[in-house]
Amino acid sequence: MSGLTDKDSAGDNARIVLGLLDSVERDGAQSQRKLAADLGIALGLVNIYVKRCVKKGLLKVREAPARRYVYYLTPHGFAEKSKLTVDYLSYSFSFFRQARTDCAEILAAAKAQATDKVILAGLSDLADIVRICALEGGIQIVAIVDPEATAARYGDIPVEKSFDEVPAGFGAVIVTDLHHGADTFAAAVARFGADRVYAPKLLGLPRREAQP
Questions:
Q1: What is the spatial distance between Cα 62 and Cα 64, in angstroms, rounded to a whole number?
Q2: 197 in a domain, yes or no?
Q3: Are strands 117-121 and 140-145 parallel, antiparallel or unpaired?
Q4: Does any domain span residue 186?
Q5: From its phi and psi, is residue 169 left (phi > 0), alpha (psi between -120 and 50) or beta?
Q6: What is the pLDDT along the chain (212 residues), one digit of tens a residue?
Q7: Does this model's pTM top 0.70?
Q8: Mapping DSSP to helix (H, G, I), strand (E, B) and coil, where does residue 19 land?
Q9: Sign of CA dihedral 142, 159, 157, 197
Q10: How many domains, in total, are found in the chain?
Q11: Cα–Cα distance, 139 to 192 (Å, whole number)
Q12: Are 64 and 114 in the same domain?
């Protein structure tokens, strides 16, 4: 189970719906498989969201040749897309502000423990914010661990599939997994001990307080 709160889940839901409506507006003839690839979610989940949007009157569907379907936005769908754009931008700003505060506190606590090298557990927007704060705080991110990652590097940072692939020499692990936060946190604690694992407050995970 993820450590995300209901508010976080609502934000993720809004992101998917907004992405779906935006993709359909640009090309209503694309397949659900293409939509899934663009949105970065499972094909089955795209099907669920498409059906929900049709039921809510946001999308309409008509059959095309070769057993294909074409989707298009209704007037209600255009209005909802505009609303979601405003709501999501507001949510994103709030997320960035909270994440930046949390990450700065964590990095300060790590540095106070004589740790200037860390690894991140989870490739996400949160990892990008930690990266910014680390540059400002003079802390090196040795690697990012994410078993679902497809790239070998994220900028100048190596991306590994497991903790086993990360060379020794780092002092702390910062959980940045937005989708499986609780599981990732538990795995990191089991591997390195609670005193070496930090998690931003916004993930809602039980954690050692990051006190410098």
A1: 6
A2: yes
A3: parallel
A4: yes
A5: left
A6: 344 444 445 567 888 888 899 888 888 888 888 888 888 888 899 999 999 999 999 999 988 776 678 998 999 988 888 888 877 777 777 888 888 999 999 998 888 887 899 999 999 889 999 999 998 888 999 999 999 888 889 888 999 999 999 988 899 999 999 888 889 999 999 999 999 999 998 888 765 544 34
A7: no
A8: helix
A9: negative
A10: 2
A11: 19
A12: no
**Nearest-angstrom CA–CA distance, 3 and 24:** 31
CA–CA dist 160, 156 (Å, integer): 13
- The C-alpha atoms of residue 81 and residue 14 are separated, in whole angstroms, by 10
Beta strands in 27-116 (DSSP E): 59-64, 68-73
Give the SS3 label for residue 142: strand
**Residue pair 99/203 in contact by the 8 Å Cβ criterion:** no
**Residues 16 and 105 both lie in one domain:** no
Distance of alpha carbon 37 from alpha carbon 141, whole angstroms:
29
Q: Same domain, yes or no, for 170 and 104? A: yes
Going by C-alpha positions, the residue among 62, 57, 58, 52 that lies closest to residue 22 is 58
